[in-house]
Design goal:
Shape: globular
Bound molecules: pyridoxal-5'-phosphate
Structural class: alpha/beta
Oligomer: single chain
CATH class of the largest domain: Alpha Beta
Length: 505
Protein backbone atom coordinates (compact mmCIF):
# COMPACT_ATOMS: atom_id res chain seq x y z
CA UNK A 1 0.00 0.00 0.00
CA UNK A 2 1.52 3.31 -1.05
CA UNK A 3 -0.94 5.74 0.48
CA UNK A 4 0.83 8.36 2.57
CA UNK A 5 -0.97 9.86 5.50
CA UNK A 6 -1.34 13.62 5.01
CA UNK A 7 0.16 14.09 8.45
CA UNK A 8 3.30 12.29 7.32
CA UNK A 9 3.98 15.22 5.03
CA UNK A 10 3.61 13.34 1.78
CA UNK A 11 1.03 13.93 -0.89
CA UNK A 12 -2.03 11.99 0.09
CA UNK A 13 -3.33 9.81 -2.66
CA UNK A 14 -6.21 7.42 -2.60
CA UNK A 15 -5.34 6.20 -6.09
CA UNK A 16 -3.74 2.90 -5.12
CA UNK A 17 -6.70 2.04 -2.91
CA UNK A 18 -9.36 3.04 -5.34
CA UNK A 19 -8.31 0.87 -8.26
CA UNK A 20 -10.28 1.44 -11.43
CA UNK A 21 -10.47 -2.23 -12.42
CA UNK A 22 -14.09 -3.25 -12.78
CA UNK A 23 -15.45 -5.54 -10.06
CA UNK A 24 -18.01 -8.08 -11.28
CA UNK A 25 -21.24 -8.41 -9.36
CA UNK A 26 -21.60 -11.36 -7.01
CA UNK A 27 -24.00 -12.93 -9.53
CA UNK A 28 -21.39 -12.77 -12.27
CA UNK A 29 -19.01 -14.64 -9.96
CA UNK A 30 -21.59 -17.32 -9.33
CA UNK A 31 -20.84 -20.93 -10.36
CA UNK A 32 -23.58 -23.57 -10.09
CA UNK A 33 -23.05 -25.85 -7.12
CA UNK A 34 -20.41 -23.73 -5.38
CA UNK A 35 -21.12 -22.86 -1.76
CA UNK A 36 -19.67 -20.99 1.23
CA UNK A 37 -20.85 -23.44 3.87
CA UNK A 38 -21.40 -27.09 4.58
CA UNK A 39 -23.91 -28.57 6.97
CA UNK A 40 -23.13 -31.82 8.70
CA UNK A 41 -26.03 -34.21 8.42
CA UNK A 42 -27.46 -34.83 11.88
CA UNK A 43 -29.39 -37.96 11.14
CA UNK A 44 -32.61 -36.25 12.25
CA UNK A 45 -35.15 -36.76 9.44
CA UNK A 46 -36.35 -33.49 7.89
CA UNK A 47 -39.83 -32.31 8.85
CA UNK A 48 -42.23 -32.47 5.91
CA UNK A 49 -42.78 -29.13 4.12
CA UNK A 50 -45.73 -27.33 5.60
CA UNK A 51 -45.25 -28.91 9.02
CA UNK A 52 -43.57 -25.95 10.73
CA UNK A 53 -44.65 -23.18 8.34
CA UNK A 54 -48.14 -23.40 6.80
CA UNK A 55 -47.72 -24.37 3.14
CA UNK A 56 -49.51 -21.26 1.84
CA UNK A 57 -46.56 -19.23 3.16
CA UNK A 58 -43.93 -21.38 1.47
CA UNK A 59 -42.41 -20.20 -1.80
CA UNK A 60 -42.93 -22.41 -4.83
CA UNK A 61 -39.78 -21.34 -6.64
CA UNK A 62 -36.24 -21.74 -5.49
CA UNK A 63 -34.74 -18.29 -4.80
CA UNK A 64 -31.83 -17.79 -7.16
CA UNK A 65 -28.92 -16.69 -5.03
CA UNK A 66 -25.32 -16.35 -6.11
CA UNK A 67 -23.29 -19.54 -5.56
CA UNK A 68 -19.76 -18.67 -4.52
CA UNK A 69 -17.10 -20.14 -2.27
CA UNK A 70 -16.24 -18.43 1.00
CA UNK A 71 -12.85 -17.53 -0.44
CA UNK A 72 -14.35 -15.74 -3.46
CA UNK A 73 -17.02 -14.13 -1.30
CA UNK A 74 -14.50 -12.57 1.09
CA UNK A 75 -12.25 -11.42 -1.76
CA UNK A 76 -15.22 -9.83 -3.54
CA UNK A 77 -16.44 -7.82 -0.58
CA UNK A 78 -12.92 -6.89 0.53
CA UNK A 79 -12.20 -5.52 -2.95
CA UNK A 80 -15.48 -3.60 -2.91
CA UNK A 81 -14.65 -2.15 0.52
CA UNK A 82 -11.44 -0.71 -0.96
CA UNK A 83 -13.26 1.13 -3.70
CA UNK A 84 -14.60 3.87 -1.48
CA UNK A 85 -13.55 6.53 0.97
CA UNK A 86 -14.42 6.39 4.65
CA UNK A 87 -13.69 8.30 7.86
CA UNK A 88 -11.24 5.56 8.79
CA UNK A 89 -9.15 6.43 5.71
CA UNK A 90 -8.72 10.14 6.25
CA UNK A 91 -10.34 13.55 6.66
CA UNK A 92 -14.00 13.70 5.67
CA UNK A 93 -14.73 17.45 5.78
CA UNK A 94 -18.41 17.15 4.82
CA UNK A 95 -20.43 20.12 6.09
CA UNK A 96 -23.71 19.77 7.99
CA UNK A 97 -23.35 16.05 8.68
CA UNK A 98 -20.43 15.90 11.17
CA UNK A 99 -18.35 13.04 9.78
CA UNK A 100 -15.94 12.70 12.68
CA UNK A 101 -13.66 9.77 13.38
CA UNK A 102 -15.49 7.34 15.68
CA UNK A 103 -13.40 5.84 18.49
CA UNK A 104 -13.20 2.05 18.16
CA UNK A 105 -13.79 1.57 21.88
CA UNK A 106 -17.43 2.57 21.31
CA UNK A 107 -17.79 -0.29 18.82
CA UNK A 108 -16.10 -2.68 21.22
CA UNK A 109 -18.55 -1.80 23.98
CA UNK A 110 -21.57 -2.02 21.66
CA UNK A 111 -20.37 -5.48 20.55
CA UNK A 112 -20.31 -6.96 24.07
CA UNK A 113 -22.44 -10.12 23.98
CA UNK A 114 -24.47 -8.87 26.96
CA UNK A 115 -25.55 -5.90 24.85
CA UNK A 116 -25.49 -7.13 21.25
CA UNK A 117 -26.88 -10.58 22.02
CA UNK A 118 -30.03 -9.59 23.91
CA UNK A 119 -33.41 -10.11 22.25
CA UNK A 120 -35.37 -6.85 22.20
CA UNK A 121 -38.42 -8.72 23.44
CA UNK A 122 -36.68 -9.93 26.61
CA UNK A 123 -38.62 -8.77 29.68
CA UNK A 124 -37.43 -5.88 31.85
CA UNK A 125 -36.69 -8.34 34.67
CA UNK A 126 -33.93 -9.92 32.53
CA UNK A 127 -32.58 -6.70 30.97
CA UNK A 128 -32.07 -4.35 33.92
CA UNK A 129 -28.59 -3.44 32.63
CA UNK A 130 -29.92 -2.41 29.23
CA UNK A 131 -32.66 -0.31 30.83
CA UNK A 132 -30.07 1.37 33.04
CA UNK A 133 -28.05 2.25 29.92
CA UNK A 134 -31.12 3.87 28.38
CA UNK A 135 -32.03 5.77 31.54
CA UNK A 136 -28.40 6.95 31.89
CA UNK A 137 -28.20 8.02 28.26
CA UNK A 138 -31.49 9.91 28.54
CA UNK A 139 -30.15 11.75 31.62
CA UNK A 140 -26.87 12.60 29.86
CA UNK A 141 -28.63 13.89 26.74
CA UNK A 142 -31.00 15.98 28.87
CA UNK A 143 -27.98 17.42 30.70
CA UNK A 144 -26.26 18.28 27.40
CA UNK A 145 -29.37 19.90 25.91
CA UNK A 146 -30.89 21.42 29.04
CA UNK A 147 -34.17 19.53 28.68
CA UNK A 148 -36.35 17.55 31.11
CA UNK A 149 -36.89 14.17 29.44
CA UNK A 150 -36.35 12.35 26.16
CA UNK A 151 -37.44 9.53 23.89
CA UNK A 152 -34.67 7.35 22.47
CA UNK A 153 -36.88 5.71 19.85
CA UNK A 154 -36.50 7.81 16.64
CA UNK A 155 -34.14 6.15 14.15
CA UNK A 156 -32.44 9.32 12.83
CA UNK A 157 -32.61 13.10 12.75
CA UNK A 158 -35.46 13.26 10.25
CA UNK A 159 -37.46 10.70 12.28
CA UNK A 160 -36.81 12.90 15.33
CA UNK A 161 -38.15 15.91 13.43
CA UNK A 162 -41.39 14.13 12.62
CA UNK A 163 -41.66 12.98 16.24
CA UNK A 164 -41.12 16.56 17.43
CA UNK A 165 -43.84 17.87 15.12
CA UNK A 166 -46.27 15.20 16.33
CA UNK A 167 -45.42 16.27 19.90
CA UNK A 168 -46.19 19.88 18.97
CA UNK A 169 -49.55 18.81 17.56
CA UNK A 170 -50.38 16.79 20.70
CA UNK A 171 -49.40 19.73 22.91
CA UNK A 172 -51.59 22.22 21.07
CA UNK A 173 -54.47 19.74 20.76
CA UNK A 174 -54.42 19.18 24.52
CA UNK A 175 -54.96 22.93 24.88
CA UNK A 176 -57.87 22.77 22.46
CA UNK A 177 -55.94 24.42 19.66
CA UNK A 178 -55.35 23.41 16.07
CA UNK A 179 -52.49 25.41 14.60
CA UNK A 180 -51.44 24.91 11.00
CA UNK A 181 -48.13 26.62 10.30
CA UNK A 182 -44.47 25.92 11.10
CA UNK A 183 -41.82 28.56 10.45
CA UNK A 184 -38.48 27.57 8.92
CA UNK A 185 -35.55 29.81 7.90
CA UNK A 186 -34.46 29.72 4.24
CA UNK A 187 -31.08 28.27 5.26
CA UNK A 188 -32.70 25.14 6.74
CA UNK A 189 -31.74 21.54 5.98
CA UNK A 190 -34.11 19.92 3.47
CA UNK A 191 -35.44 17.44 6.00
CA UNK A 192 -37.05 20.32 7.98
CA UNK A 193 -39.66 21.34 5.36
CA UNK A 194 -40.08 17.68 4.36
CA UNK A 195 -40.89 16.69 7.95
CA UNK A 196 -43.29 19.62 8.32
CA UNK A 197 -45.19 18.50 5.23
CA UNK A 198 -45.18 14.87 6.35
CA UNK A 199 -46.45 16.00 9.76
CA UNK A 200 -49.44 17.67 8.09
CA UNK A 201 -48.35 21.28 8.65
CA UNK A 202 -47.77 24.14 6.20
CA UNK A 203 -44.30 25.63 5.82
CA UNK A 204 -43.73 29.36 6.22
CA UNK A 205 -40.21 30.35 5.16
CA UNK A 206 -38.40 33.33 6.69
CA UNK A 207 -35.40 34.88 4.93
CA UNK A 208 -31.90 35.27 6.36
CA UNK A 209 -30.48 38.76 6.84
CA UNK A 210 -27.17 39.98 5.43
CA UNK A 211 -25.31 38.50 8.41
CA UNK A 212 -26.63 35.00 7.61
CA UNK A 213 -29.04 34.87 10.57
CA UNK A 214 -32.83 34.82 10.84
CA UNK A 215 -34.25 38.20 9.80
CA UNK A 216 -35.99 39.14 13.06
CA UNK A 217 -38.33 41.72 11.52
CA UNK A 218 -39.41 39.25 8.81
CA UNK A 219 -39.99 36.60 11.49
CA UNK A 220 -42.14 38.90 13.62
CA UNK A 221 -44.19 39.78 10.55
CA UNK A 222 -45.30 36.15 10.03
CA UNK A 223 -46.00 35.30 13.69
CA UNK A 224 -49.60 34.81 14.77
CA UNK A 225 -51.71 32.29 16.69
CA UNK A 226 -51.82 29.93 13.69
CA UNK A 227 -48.10 29.24 14.18
CA UNK A 228 -47.54 25.90 15.92
CA UNK A 229 -43.83 26.48 16.17
CA UNK A 230 -40.50 27.29 14.56
CA UNK A 231 -37.70 24.89 13.58
CA UNK A 232 -34.18 26.23 13.95
CA UNK A 233 -30.69 24.93 14.22
CA UNK A 234 -28.17 26.98 16.18
CA UNK A 235 -25.47 27.37 14.97
CA UNK A 236 -27.44 27.52 11.75
CA UNK A 237 -26.56 25.70 8.54
CA UNK A 238 -24.15 28.52 7.60
CA UNK A 239 -22.15 27.61 10.71
CA UNK A 240 -23.17 30.91 12.32
CA UNK A 241 -24.58 31.38 15.80
CA UNK A 242 -28.05 32.95 15.89
CA UNK A 243 -27.25 35.72 18.32
CA UNK A 244 -30.87 36.90 18.52
CA UNK A 245 -32.05 33.51 19.76
CA UNK A 246 -33.41 34.83 23.09
CA UNK A 247 -35.50 37.43 21.27
CA UNK A 248 -36.66 34.86 18.69
CA UNK A 249 -37.71 32.49 21.48
CA UNK A 250 -39.63 35.22 23.30
CA UNK A 251 -41.45 36.29 20.12
CA UNK A 252 -42.49 32.72 19.22
CA UNK A 253 -43.57 31.92 22.80
CA UNK A 254 -45.57 35.17 22.89
CA UNK A 255 -47.93 33.86 20.20
CA UNK A 256 -48.14 30.46 21.94
CA UNK A 257 -45.78 28.66 19.52
CA UNK A 258 -43.05 26.15 20.41
CA UNK A 259 -39.36 26.15 19.45
CA UNK A 260 -37.90 23.05 17.80
CA UNK A 261 -34.11 22.67 17.82
CA UNK A 262 -32.58 20.69 14.95
CA UNK A 263 -29.62 19.25 16.85
CA UNK A 264 -27.55 18.20 13.84
CA UNK A 265 -25.13 21.01 14.73
CA UNK A 266 -24.80 20.07 18.39
CA UNK A 267 -21.12 19.29 17.81
CA UNK A 268 -20.51 23.05 17.96
CA UNK A 269 -21.90 23.69 21.42
CA UNK A 270 -21.47 20.61 23.67
CA UNK A 271 -20.86 21.73 27.24
CA UNK A 272 -20.78 25.38 26.16
CA UNK A 273 -24.41 26.42 25.74
CA UNK A 274 -27.67 24.44 25.92
CA UNK A 275 -30.72 24.63 23.62
CA UNK A 276 -32.98 24.45 26.70
CA UNK A 277 -31.33 27.59 28.07
CA UNK A 278 -31.80 29.31 24.70
CA UNK A 279 -35.57 28.78 25.04
CA UNK A 280 -36.10 25.66 22.92
CA UNK A 281 -38.91 23.24 23.85
CA UNK A 282 -38.00 20.24 21.65
CA UNK A 283 -34.53 19.06 20.58
CA UNK A 284 -33.49 16.19 18.37
CA UNK A 285 -29.96 14.87 18.43
CA UNK A 286 -28.22 12.93 15.67
CA UNK A 287 -26.26 10.42 17.75
CA UNK A 288 -24.66 9.20 14.51
CA UNK A 289 -23.22 12.67 13.92
CA UNK A 290 -22.31 14.06 17.33
CA UNK A 291 -21.95 10.95 19.47
CA UNK A 292 -19.77 8.72 17.36
CA UNK A 293 -21.74 6.18 15.46
CA UNK A 294 -20.35 5.61 11.95
CA UNK A 295 -22.78 6.84 9.33
CA UNK A 296 -23.01 7.79 5.72
CA UNK A 297 -23.49 4.32 4.32
CA UNK A 298 -27.11 4.10 5.35
CA UNK A 299 -26.32 2.21 8.53
CA UNK A 300 -28.44 2.57 11.64
CA UNK A 301 -28.54 5.95 13.34
CA UNK A 302 -30.51 7.33 16.25
CA UNK A 303 -32.35 10.62 16.67
CA UNK A 304 -33.47 10.90 20.30
CA UNK A 305 -35.85 13.78 21.00
CA UNK A 306 -35.56 15.68 24.29
CA UNK A 307 -38.34 17.96 25.52
CA UNK A 308 -39.11 20.48 28.24
CA UNK A 309 -41.29 19.28 31.13
CA UNK A 310 -44.57 20.49 29.64
CA UNK A 311 -44.15 18.02 26.77
CA UNK A 312 -43.03 14.94 28.77
CA UNK A 313 -46.53 13.47 29.04
CA UNK A 314 -46.78 13.24 25.23
CA UNK A 315 -43.49 11.41 24.57
CA UNK A 316 -43.50 8.14 22.63
CA UNK A 317 -43.51 5.06 24.81
CA UNK A 318 -42.65 2.77 26.34
CA UNK A 319 -39.65 4.52 27.91
CA UNK A 320 -37.06 2.92 30.17
CA UNK A 321 -37.86 4.41 33.59
CA UNK A 322 -36.58 3.99 37.13
CA UNK A 323 -39.46 2.72 39.26
CA UNK A 324 -38.45 2.39 42.91
CA UNK A 325 -35.12 0.55 42.95
CA UNK A 326 -35.51 -1.15 39.57
CA UNK A 327 -36.10 -0.23 35.94
CA UNK A 328 -39.21 -0.82 33.90
CA UNK A 329 -40.91 0.15 30.64
CA UNK A 330 -43.43 2.95 31.20
CA UNK A 331 -45.61 4.69 28.62
CA UNK A 332 -46.37 8.38 29.34
CA UNK A 333 -50.07 9.17 30.04
CA UNK A 334 -50.83 11.12 26.82
CA UNK A 335 -48.19 9.41 24.64
CA UNK A 336 -48.30 9.97 20.88
CA UNK A 337 -47.50 6.23 20.60
CA UNK A 338 -44.54 4.41 19.17
CA UNK A 339 -42.28 5.91 16.51
CA UNK A 340 -40.02 2.84 16.17
CA UNK A 341 -40.31 -0.91 16.72
CA UNK A 342 -39.00 -2.16 20.04
CA UNK A 343 -36.69 0.36 21.72
CA UNK A 344 -35.01 2.20 18.85
CA UNK A 345 -31.60 1.37 17.44
CA UNK A 346 -30.28 0.16 20.77
CA UNK A 347 -26.63 -0.45 19.86
CA UNK A 348 -26.33 3.12 18.57
CA UNK A 349 -27.60 4.22 21.97
CA UNK A 350 -24.98 2.09 23.73
CA UNK A 351 -22.23 3.62 21.56
CA UNK A 352 -23.41 7.13 22.36
CA UNK A 353 -23.35 6.51 26.11
CA UNK A 354 -19.88 4.98 25.79
CA UNK A 355 -18.72 8.08 23.90
CA UNK A 356 -20.18 10.44 26.51
CA UNK A 357 -18.69 8.43 29.40
CA UNK A 358 -15.17 8.26 27.94
CA UNK A 359 -15.14 12.02 27.41
CA UNK A 360 -16.83 13.20 30.60
CA UNK A 361 -18.41 16.64 30.83
CA UNK A 362 -15.18 18.56 30.38
CA UNK A 363 -14.12 16.31 27.50
CA UNK A 364 -17.35 17.00 25.61
CA UNK A 365 -16.74 20.71 25.96
CA UNK A 366 -13.26 20.22 24.49
CA UNK A 367 -14.77 18.31 21.55
CA UNK A 368 -16.80 21.38 20.62
CA UNK A 369 -14.06 23.90 21.34
CA UNK A 370 -11.67 22.03 19.06
CA UNK A 371 -14.31 21.55 16.35
CA UNK A 372 -14.90 25.32 16.33
CA UNK A 373 -11.18 26.08 16.43
CA UNK A 374 -10.49 23.77 13.49
CA UNK A 375 -13.29 25.32 11.40
CA UNK A 376 -12.03 28.82 12.09
CA UNK A 377 -8.47 27.79 11.23
CA UNK A 378 -9.70 26.53 7.85
CA UNK A 379 -11.85 29.64 7.32
CA UNK A 380 -8.96 31.97 8.02
CA UNK A 381 -6.51 29.97 5.94
CA UNK A 382 -8.78 29.59 2.89
CA UNK A 383 -10.13 33.16 2.95
CA UNK A 384 -7.17 34.16 0.76
CA UNK A 385 -8.05 31.66 -2.00
CA UNK A 386 -11.86 31.48 -1.93
CA UNK A 387 -14.69 33.85 -0.95
CA UNK A 388 -16.10 33.19 2.51
CA UNK A 389 -19.90 33.44 2.32
CA UNK A 390 -20.32 35.38 5.57
CA UNK A 391 -16.89 36.47 6.66
CA UNK A 392 -17.05 36.48 10.42
CA UNK A 393 -16.04 33.94 13.06
CA UNK A 394 -17.89 30.70 12.45
CA UNK A 395 -18.81 27.82 14.71
CA UNK A 396 -17.99 24.22 13.68
CA UNK A 397 -18.28 24.66 9.91
CA UNK A 398 -17.63 27.29 7.30
CA UNK A 399 -19.33 28.02 3.98
CA UNK A 400 -17.21 29.21 1.05
CA UNK A 401 -18.54 30.51 -2.24
CA UNK A 402 -16.93 29.90 -5.63
CA UNK A 403 -18.96 32.53 -7.48
CA UNK A 404 -15.87 34.49 -8.48
CA UNK A 405 -14.05 31.40 -9.77
CA UNK A 406 -17.10 30.41 -11.81
CA UNK A 407 -17.54 33.87 -13.34
CA UNK A 408 -13.86 34.39 -14.12
CA UNK A 409 -12.67 30.87 -14.91
CA UNK A 410 -15.71 28.63 -15.39
CA UNK A 411 -14.84 26.57 -12.31
CA UNK A 412 -17.74 25.39 -10.18
CA UNK A 413 -17.99 24.07 -6.64
CA UNK A 414 -18.49 20.55 -7.99
CA UNK A 415 -15.17 20.76 -9.92
CA UNK A 416 -13.24 21.65 -6.78
CA UNK A 417 -15.03 18.95 -4.78
CA UNK A 418 -14.26 16.23 -7.35
CA UNK A 419 -10.65 17.34 -7.71
CA UNK A 420 -10.18 17.25 -3.92
CA UNK A 421 -10.92 13.52 -3.98
CA UNK A 422 -7.79 13.01 -6.06
CA UNK A 423 -5.79 14.54 -3.22
CA UNK A 424 -6.99 11.84 -0.81
CA UNK A 425 -9.77 13.71 0.99
CA UNK A 426 -13.50 13.24 0.91
CA UNK A 427 -15.29 16.05 -0.91
CA UNK A 428 -16.93 18.75 1.20
CA UNK A 429 -20.67 19.44 0.93
CA UNK A 430 -21.54 21.36 -2.24
CA UNK A 431 -24.52 23.53 -3.20
CA UNK A 432 -25.83 23.64 0.37
CA UNK A 433 -27.08 25.74 2.06
CA UNK A 434 -29.19 26.73 -0.91
CA UNK A 435 -28.95 30.46 -0.19
CA UNK A 436 -25.21 30.54 -0.98
CA UNK A 437 -24.25 30.55 -4.65
CA UNK A 438 -21.66 27.85 -5.58
CA UNK A 439 -21.47 26.82 -1.93
CA UNK A 440 -18.63 24.68 -0.59
CA UNK A 441 -19.32 23.75 3.02
CA UNK A 442 -16.44 22.47 5.14
CA UNK A 443 -16.69 20.90 8.59
CA UNK A 444 -13.25 19.59 9.58
CA UNK A 445 -14.45 18.29 13.01
CA UNK A 446 -12.35 18.06 16.16
CA UNK A 447 -10.82 14.72 15.24
CA UNK A 448 -8.45 16.12 12.59
CA UNK A 449 -4.96 17.16 13.67
CA UNK A 450 -3.26 20.41 12.75
CA UNK A 451 -1.09 18.44 10.31
CA UNK A 452 -4.16 17.06 8.54
CA UNK A 453 -5.76 20.52 8.41
CA UNK A 454 -2.52 21.83 6.93
CA UNK A 455 -2.58 19.10 4.26
CA UNK A 456 -6.24 19.83 3.52
CA UNK A 457 -5.56 23.56 3.18
CA UNK A 458 -2.60 22.86 0.89
CA UNK A 459 -4.79 20.65 -1.28
CA UNK A 460 -7.36 23.45 -1.62
CA UNK A 461 -4.61 25.96 -2.40
CA UNK A 462 -3.18 23.67 -5.06
CA UNK A 463 -6.63 23.27 -6.64
CA UNK A 464 -7.28 27.02 -6.53
CA UNK A 465 -3.99 27.64 -8.36
CA UNK A 466 -4.82 24.93 -10.89
CA UNK A 467 -8.22 26.55 -11.51
CA UNK A 468 -6.35 29.52 -12.96
CA UNK A 469 -3.57 27.66 -14.79
CA UNK A 470 -5.26 24.48 -15.99
CA UNK A 471 -9.05 24.64 -15.52
CA UNK A 472 -9.62 21.59 -17.75
CA UNK A 473 -7.87 19.36 -15.27
CA UNK A 474 -10.54 20.28 -12.70
CA UNK A 475 -13.35 19.52 -15.12
CA UNK A 476 -11.85 16.06 -15.73
CA UNK A 477 -11.66 15.11 -12.04
CA UNK A 478 -11.93 12.66 -10.40
CA UNK A 479 -9.47 10.48 -12.32
CA UNK A 480 -8.39 8.16 -9.50
CA UNK A 481 -11.70 6.74 -8.30
CA UNK A 482 -13.43 3.59 -9.62
CA UNK A 483 -16.08 5.78 -11.24
CA UNK A 484 -15.26 9.13 -12.86
CA UNK A 485 -17.57 12.14 -13.19
CA UNK A 486 -21.14 10.97 -13.51
CA UNK A 487 -24.09 12.87 -14.93
CA UNK A 488 -25.89 13.26 -11.62
CA UNK A 489 -29.16 14.54 -13.08
CA UNK A 490 -29.35 11.60 -15.49
CA UNK A 491 -28.38 9.15 -12.75
CA UNK A 492 -31.19 10.46 -10.54
CA UNK A 493 -33.77 10.41 -13.34
CA UNK A 494 -32.92 7.06 -14.90
CA UNK A 495 -32.25 4.98 -11.86
CA UNK A 496 -31.42 1.35 -12.67
CA UNK A 497 -32.37 -0.41 -9.50
CA UNK A 498 -31.85 -4.03 -10.40
CA UNK A 499 -29.17 -6.18 -11.92
CA UNK A 500 -30.46 -8.82 -14.29
CA UNK A 501 -28.54 -11.95 -13.37
CA UNK A 502 -30.00 -14.05 -16.19
CA UNK A 503 -27.69 -14.88 -19.07
CA UNK A 504 -28.08 -12.12 -21.65
CA UNK A 505 -28.82 -13.23 -25.24
C1 LIG B 1 -28.26 15.51 8.94
C2 LIG B 1 -29.20 16.62 9.19
C3 LIG B 1 -30.56 16.39 9.40
C4 LIG B 1 -31.21 15.02 9.20
O1 LIG B 1 -30.69 14.04 10.01
P1 LIG B 1 -30.66 12.49 9.59
O2 LIG B 1 -30.10 11.83 10.79
O3 LIG B 1 -29.80 12.40 8.38
O4 LIG B 1 -32.07 12.08 9.30
C5 LIG B 1 -31.36 17.46 9.74
N1 LIG B 1 -30.86 18.70 9.84
C6 LIG B 1 -29.55 18.98 9.63
C7 LIG B 1 -29.06 20.40 9.78
C8 LIG B 1 -28.67 17.94 9.30
O5 LIG B 1 -27.39 18.20 9.08
Amino acid sequence: MTMTHPAAGGKASSAPLMGRAAEPTIFELSQPGRSSFQFRTTGVPPRPAGDLIPSEFLADDVVELAEVSERDLVAHFTRLSHRQFSVDLGAYPLGSCTMKYNPKVCDTIASLPGLAGVHPGAPASLTQGWLEIMVSLEAALCEVTGMASATLQPAAGAAGELTGLLLMRAYHAARGEERRRIIIPDSAHGTNPASVTLGGYDVTTVPSDDRGCVDLAALKAVLDTDVAGIMLTNPNTLGLFEEDIAEIAAAVHDVGGLLYYDGANLNAILGVVRPGDMGFDIVHMNLHKTFATPHGGGGPGAGPVAVSSRLTEFLPGPRATKVGDRYDWVTPPSSIGRVHGWHGNALVLARALAYIEIHGGDGLRKVSERAVLNANWIRQRLSTVFDVAFDRPCMHEVVLSLTTLRKDHGIKAIDVAKRLMEEGFHAPTVYFPLIVDEALMIEPTETESLQTLEALAQAFELIAAEALSDPDSLHAAPRTSPVGRVDEALAARQLIQTFDARPQP
